[in-house]
Amino acid sequence: MSSEENIFLFVPNLIGYGRILLAIVSFYFMPTNHIVSSWCYIISGLLDAFDGYAARYFNESTKFGAILDQLTDRCGTMCLLVTLSYFYPRYMFLFQLSMCIDIACHWIYLHTTLLQGKTSHKFVDVAENPVMRVYYTSRPVLFCMCAGNELFYASLYLLHFTEGPVLGGLSLFRAVCYATLPVAIIKSLIALLQGFVACRNLAIIDVKEREAATKSQ
């Protein structure tokens, strides 16, 4: 394989490796140093937009990069939720549910799209659910939902250490937490719908494969 065709050295994938390193540093400091951890987490998240831009600019979109991107996002949120489970043990069960929904639904959806031969986990057929179509084809909607979900968990994390600036008698972090809670709930519901759509499509694949196997016998 020539160096030009080594996908592991494509620019967006190199950015992805940087995201992983920043995430690991964030995880290490997460229980003790909210400043270092937050900055590393934020920068890792912001680089998510840059690797997508780089993939389009350099025409270096790959299945490896797409999966790397998804895994980094999912692992980042999961590790943050693990930390929140220790900070807020009373709500540990809810954090556990959130992790299970996020990981399971995204995994089965991505796996199903790969089985269908799609080029991106964000590809949506016309026949699929209209809510999913809007969610994945409208960049403003997708950005607001993902950002709102991350802001909710991030504000919960920061509240464990500090209330932050106080505006109008309400701390900034607490205000963000209250404002983004509905977004986090809606995003979990969308993830469940995503899992349902994936299960339906996976069942269709199974039926077609069984029909093909029966005809070949």
Explain what you see.
The chain has 217 residues and is mainly alpha-helical. It has one domain (3-216): Four Helix Bundle (Hemerythrin (Met), subunit A) (Up-down Bundle). The protein is built from seven helices and two strands. It has helices spanning 11-29, 34-57, 63-87, 92-115, 130-137, 139-159, 172-216, and strands spanning 166-167, 170-171. A two-stranded antiparallel sheet has the order 1-2. Strand 1 (166-167) and strand 2 form a beta hairpin. Helix 1 runs parallel beside helix 3 (63-87) and helix 3 (63-87) packs antiparallel against helix 4. The chain is globular. It starts with 10 loop residues before the first helix and ends with a helix.
Do you know the CATH architecture? Up-down Bundle
The portion of residues assigned to helices is over 70%
CATH class: Mainly Alpha
What is the count of structural domains?
Answer: 1
Based on secondary structure, the structural category is mainly alpha
Runs in which pLDDT lies below 50 for 5 or more consecutive residues are none
Q: What overall form do the CA principal axes indicate? A: globular
Please tag this protein with its features.
two-stranded antiparallel ribbon; Four Helix Bundle (Hemerythrin (Met), subunit A); 217 residues
Topology:
Blueprint: H1 11-29, H2 34-57, H3 63-87, H4 92-115, H5 130-137, H6 139-159, E1 166-167, E2 170-171, H7 172-216
Antiparallel strand pairs: 1-2
Nutshell version of this structure?
This protein is mainly α and 217 residues long. Helices cover 76% and strands 2% of the residues.
